[in-house]
């Protein structure tokens, strides 16, 4: 440490004390963590059924055998997630704006948007997947999608669109009325104030909860297994029912966990950047 | 010559609270009208009625030869010619200072970004804010933010400027710079209606001073008249407290 002044004895004493204290804290954190982990490990491994559990859930050879196929199937999850995410954002933004805008022309759309959010927020996603996955093909409509992938994506979009629309709407309503007054005072119309002043602030504000919803969406792509789409969970099921082992499920779980971590870190990074940008220099 | 901005018997009610009880106001081009009075006397509400942020409950407001309280009027058309600066600045926190200033000209007047930025930069420079153009509002001091808010209103080339207690949220140290900016606007002939608690400043710049209490104009006249020879006892009492 270099300073432009002669550091006083008192300050040196303080620094030394803080160093000692930090070392002590670090030691306590480390020791307690190790103790907890060891105790947990001993508890689990000494359980009477541990040998059986280890063989069925944590078998290295089973894991290795299932890994390539589950990895390939997991690409379907990622694809469904990415496509649905874009569609959800578009649908949710539209629904949120329709519900907020006080225009007479919007009245019928507002009813549709309100009923939509009520119905799809109230229906379990699993049910939506089943109803869309089997219902739409049963209609036999000309041009209706028959691919399991797209049916699944549509179901997820409908279900999550309702949630995300409400998050975005809450964000819009959370922007202080003085921002509306300020925009309108410049002569900006309602729509332009919404677009240039309110929505950008609302979306920034709801980014963390939105990304949280998307983490959840990433996991819920596994629901598409019920309509027969071969994604990671379905692939694990196939192995499991053939060999009577559960290790493939653990492998699939690992894929989901690993996939959500980057999104979580991305959320942190975004929030940090937003905070820095708004308070800091250029 | 008829007034640029005129209020006739304007009333505004919130629930059963009468905020404005028939206020008359007349502002000629190049004039500065100051509204003084205690908090809650109706100064801010009157300003918000003048730019149609509040819908009047009775009376008329005329601007530039037309009645703007006519419900058929396009409020956006009216507001683009009426600049407003708020007590709490109300800058757009997600935009740089330059974008704050150019948003109106670009999205309302349809100016090209290059032209708008050139004009904005000139205005910012004039008000000592050239170095702040790329920053976000939160990185600026209160005084700087308020001057940006003034520049943002000016960028629309308004015919009249409404200033709503523009120094009330500021540190005493920062008030001077903002008042200096207003002084400069008056010097170049801007028409201004300002609600203020800065009595000395009102006395210095106002062509006309209105004293409001409980939604009524108790006293009106030149700054000299109102400050040195008020006729209403309520004005005398208010000034005694605020000029001490």
TrEMBL record, chain A:
The keyword Transport applies. Gene3D superfamilies: MetI-like. CDD domains: TM_PBP2. InterPro entries: AA_ABC_transptr_permease_3TM, ArtM/GltK/GlnP/TcyL/YhdX-like, MetI-like, MetI-like_sf. It holds the Pfam family BPD_transp_1. The chain crosses the membrane at residues 26-44, 80-101, 122-141, 147-165, 244-264. Its main location: membrane. It is a multi-pass membrane protein. Keywords: Amino-acid transport, Cell membrane, Membrane, Transmembrane, Transmembrane helix, Transport. Residues 82-267 form the ABC transmembrane type-1 domain. This is Amino acid ABC transporter permease. It comes from Mumia xiangluensis.
UniProtKB/TrEMBL annotation, chain B:
It is a peripheral membrane protein. It is found in: Cell membrane. One of its GO terms (molecular function) is ATP hydrolysis activity. Residues 5-239 form the ABC transporter domain. Transmembrane segments: none annotated. It comes from the Bacteria. PANTHER family: AMINO ACID IMPORT ATP-BINDING PROTEIN (PTHR43166), GLUTAMATE_ASPARTATE IMPORT ATP-BINDING PROTEIN GLTL (PTHR43166:SF9). This is Amino acid ABC transporter ATP-binding protein.
């Amino acid at each position: 440490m270099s300073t432009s002044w002669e550091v006083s004895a008192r300050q040196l004493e303080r620094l030394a004390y803080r160093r000692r204290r930090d070392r002590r804290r670090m030691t306590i954190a480390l020791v307690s963590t190790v103790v907890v982990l060891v105790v947990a490990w001993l508890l689990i491994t000494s359980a009477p059924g541990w040998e059986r559990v280890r063989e069925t859930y944590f078998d290295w050879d089973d894991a290795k055998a299932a890994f390539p196929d589950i990895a390939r199937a997991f690409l379907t999850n990622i694809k469904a997630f990415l496509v649905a995410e874009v569609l959800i954002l578009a649908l949710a933004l539209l629904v949120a704006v329709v519900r907020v805008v006080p225009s007479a022309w919007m009245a019928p759309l507002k009813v549709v948007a309100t009923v939509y959010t009520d119905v799809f927020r109230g229906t379990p996603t699993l049910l939506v997947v089943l109803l869309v996955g089997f219902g739409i093909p049963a209609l036999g409509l000309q041009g209706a999608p028959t691919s399991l992938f797209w049916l699944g994506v549509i179901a997820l979009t409908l279900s999550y669109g309702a949630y995300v629309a409400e998050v975005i709407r809450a964000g819009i309503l959370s922007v202080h009325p003085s921002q509306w007054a300020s925009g309108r005072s410049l002569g900006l119309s309602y729509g332009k104030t919404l677009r240039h002043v309110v929505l950008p602030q609302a979306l920034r504000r709801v980014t963390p909860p939105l990304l949280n919803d998307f983490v959840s969406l990433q996991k819920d792509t596994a629901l598409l297994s019920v309509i027969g789409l071969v994604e990671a969970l379905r692939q694990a099921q196939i192995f499991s029912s053939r060999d009577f082992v559960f290790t493939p499920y653990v492998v699939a779980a690992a894929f989901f966990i690993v996939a959500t971590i980057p999104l979580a870190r991305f959320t942190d990074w975004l929030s940090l950047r937003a905070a820095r940008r708004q308070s800091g220099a250029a | 010559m008829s007034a640029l901005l005129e209020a006739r018997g304007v009333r505004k009610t919130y629930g059963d609270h009468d905020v404005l009880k028939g206020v008359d106001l007349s502002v000629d081009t190049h004039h500065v009208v100051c509204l003084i009075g205690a908090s809650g006397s109706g100064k801010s509400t009157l300003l918000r009625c003048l730019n149609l942020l509040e819908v009047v409950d009775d009376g008329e407001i005329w601007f530039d030869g037309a009645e703007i309280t006519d419900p058929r009027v396009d409020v956006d058309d009216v507001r683009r010619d009426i600049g407003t600066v708020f007590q709490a600045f109300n800058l757009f926190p997600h935009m740089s200072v330059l974008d704050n200033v150019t948003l109106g000209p670009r999205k309302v007047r349809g100016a090209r970004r290059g032209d708008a930025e050139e004009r904005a930069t000139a205005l910012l420079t004039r008000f000592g804010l050239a170095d702040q153009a790329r920053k976000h509002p939160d990185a600026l001091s209160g005084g700087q933010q308020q001057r940006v808010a003034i520049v943002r209103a000016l960028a629309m080339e308004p015919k009249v400027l409404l200033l709503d207690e523009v120094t009330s949220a500021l540190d005493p140290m920062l008030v001077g710079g903002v008042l200096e900016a207003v002084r400069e606007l008056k010097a170049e002939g801007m028409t201004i209606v300002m609600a203020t608690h800065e009595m000395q400043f009102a006395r210095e710049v106002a062509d006309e001073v209105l004293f409001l209490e409980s939604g009524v104009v108790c006293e009106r006249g030149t700054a000299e008249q109102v400050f040195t020879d008020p006729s209403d006892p309520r004005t005398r009492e208010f000034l005694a407290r605020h000029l001490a």
